């Protein structure tokens, strides 16, 4: 079964693929006449864990905390982990940018 793809101007396709050098690939495609209707979305790499003991690199770890996580947030901060509130996380999602210079959760404790 084949589907006909619409080519109307108000519809667009989303492509997702992996290349070794994104900048040179985009430059070549634009030179060939390609157009972009928005920014390139980069995949974020990382892991999620519920156990602070399983951390490998505390300096590269972010701990998202709420009031109920006070004890764990303090422990994480003492281990060198950056601790932020869930509100911080939502602000980062809305801005589509990590604000690592923001006030940390455990700093005020």
TrEMBL record:
Keywords: DNA damage, Nucleus. It is found in: Nucleus. Signal peptide: none annotated. InterPro entries: BRCT_dom_sf, DDR_Transcriptional_Reg. GO terms for biological process: DNA damage response. Its main location: nucleus. This is BRCT domain-containing protein.
